[in-house]
Specification:
The protein is an alpha+beta fold and 332 residues long. It has 8 helices and 21 strands. The protein has 3 domains: 89 residues, 2-Layer Sandwich (Pseudouridine synthase); 128 residues, Pseudouridine synthase, CATH 3.30.2350.10; 72 residues, Archaeosine Trna-guanine Transglycosylase, Chain: A, domain 4 (Roll), CATH 2.30.130.10. The protein is 20% helix and 34% strand. The two termini are 30 Å apart. 36% of the residues are buried.
Amino acid sequence: MARRRKGRAVSGWVVLDKPYDLGSTQAVSRVRRLFEAQKAGHAGTLDPLATGVLPIALGEATKTVPFLMDADKAYVFTVEWGTSTATLDREGEVTARSDVRPTPEAAAEALKAFVGEIQQVPPAYSAIKVDGERAYDLAREGVEVELKARPVTIHSAEISGAPDVDHLEITVSCGKGTYVRSIVRDLAEALGACAHVSQLRRTRVGPFGEAESISMENLEGLLYEDRCSKALLPVETALDDIPVLAVTTEDAFRLKQGRSIVLLPRQVETLRPLLSPRTIGGLDASRTVLATSGGKAAALCEMRAGRLSPTRVFLLDPDSGESDVDCSRPQG
């Protein structure tokens, strides 16, 4: 007999405004405990020194995490001129100093070379694996780590503030795998200066932005008021760019059993123009369709030859939304 999962069958997304000095894994654990959820995960790690948008998936929402791992992200960060560090942020050991203080105009001109698809070398202190070990573990042990450049896409990079001659604020919109610390390292090199990241905030991950986020303190406050469901977004929120087809209760039942359903010609004609080339986790998702029933996600499917075949099903009750979850603490 399969072992029953501990916790409640809570499903949905919590967009946490992650505080400073809290790791992503620690944040997920705290949110999971608050909701007493059976399972949890997150979409896109944030360093402990970074703040901002950390989407946390609970329950069935964890099945949609891969769709956010490839999502575009946005950051606002502060460059501090004068010193370079081993970690490329303010916590690392100083490795070089310079009196050069580039002007905002010079930095803006240099930033133009960073927009588009570029080759970027990740920081030595990163989670990338080298011979089975994390690069940051090797770097901390004093092992010289040489990481290869890889293609990343930066959609935009603009100067958004210059509080004083020692600091510059930049906003960036970018694709997956982009390291802000590497941008600052390479920008400083291009300007003949030394610099590191003194502050970093993520403002968007795919469809999730600051407007949807909630602080840990406010989330805990909602818990004690038995209103934590107010912070829970539907499972399908992460699938905002996937074509959606509402199906009957009977068809939803078939899909959840792993069986395909036949589409009407008009359904095929409606969906076909909405399909577009995309990859999710390195796999072709150009034919992916989200089937819904009762306004809730029923299954992610692949459309072929006028049929929908389920690739991932969601065990959600269409008659009771995720937002109806009981958030009160157990008595006793």
